[in-house]
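Section 5: illustrative case.
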């Protein structure tokens, strides 16, 4: 199924997702986590935008982004995909191996109720994958800790340059060795980038700024996640299904054979109201039709028809005229 046309509106909240072609390479040990954090920090520095709730799984990513700079979203995502692919290929001594599937999904979230449901879905991902019994025990990058503390966190994050990426044997690295490698690299790395996550920034997409209202919604998310992971745990117990221990997860081979068996349905938008969804889809299809007409004209070197703002022309992102 072809990917949907990209259309980014300023201040809109989007859920970005992409997955690997095969395998489960991003084992969440300290070395991999720090490498990913360094890549994200550099991506934000190069292409500023607001990162919200996210989770990095072993073979896919979910990340909410508020489009403070719509033109930066595509470059931001492509930078993360490119640099994380180089990192894993260098780590496993592979050359020109495609890591990520082509493209990425970027689904607009149209109302706060659905935004909450999507955050709960994101944070329950590791539990549903049997990587842990509760999200607080998942060692991979995620925003549960930020949510529980309901605060903004700022730190200096070092980025591992390609020249310093170590080589591992047999595709396996123990968590103890991964920690020691990172501690050694930390002393050698010179590049440092500011890394800030304001876990409450996404509320601005829906005009929510009052502290009490934000606290109410955050508690609602925490309660839903807690209920969801408890229900799933007891369901698995009844069905005789187990969960990974932290050690079994971190000691998995990074180059193990694995091909995804199911893919999610491509969505034009996320909305809790049918009316909101129908209205958005109508406008989205109208914009896509305008972009298609412009593209067909441009192929004939007729530039009289412009691409709609928020879409991509052959020259790049089309911004709103001021």
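Designed sequence:
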């Amino acid at each position: 199924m072809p990917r949907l046309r990209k259309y980014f509106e300023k201040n809109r909240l989007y859920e970005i997702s992409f997955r690997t072609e095969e395998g489960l390479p991003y084992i969440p040990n300290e070395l991999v986590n720090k490498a990913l954090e360094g890549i994200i920090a550099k991506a934000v520095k190069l292409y500023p935008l607001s990162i919200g709730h996210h989770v990095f799984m072993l073979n896919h990513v979910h990340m909410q982004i508020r489009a403070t700079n719509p033109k930066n979203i595509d470059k931001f995502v492509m930078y993360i995909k490119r640099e994380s692919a180089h990192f894993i290929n260098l780590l496993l001594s592979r050359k020109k191996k495609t890591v990520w599937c082509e493209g990425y999904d970027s689904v607009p979230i149209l109302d706060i109720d659905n935004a909450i449901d999507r955050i709960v879905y994101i944070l329950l991902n590791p539990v549903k994958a049997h990587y842990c019994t509760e999200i607080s025990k998942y060692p991979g990058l995620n925003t549960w800790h930020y949510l529980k503390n309901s605060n903004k966190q700022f730190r200096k994050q070092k980025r591992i340059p390609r020249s310093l990426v170590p080589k591992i044997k047999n595709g396996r690295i123990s968590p103890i060795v991964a920690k020691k490698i990172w501690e050694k690299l930390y002393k050698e790395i010179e590049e440092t980038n500011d890394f800030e996550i304001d876990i409450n920034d996404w509320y601005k997409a829906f005009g929510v700024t009052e502290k009490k209202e934000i606290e109410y919604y955050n508690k609602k998310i925490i309660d839903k996640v807690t209920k969801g992971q408890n229900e799933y745990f007891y369901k698995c117990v009844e069905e005789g299904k187990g969960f990974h221990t932290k050690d079994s997860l971190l000691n998995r081979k990074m180059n193990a054979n694995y091909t995804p068996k199911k893919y999610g349905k491509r969505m034009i938008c996320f909305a809790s109201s049918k009316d909101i969804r129908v209205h958005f889809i109508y406008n989205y299809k109208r914009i896509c039709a305008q972009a298609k007409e412009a593209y067909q004209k441009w192929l004939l070197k007729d530039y009289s028809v412009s691409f709609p703002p928020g879409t991509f022309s052959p020259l790049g992102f089309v911004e709103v005229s001021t």
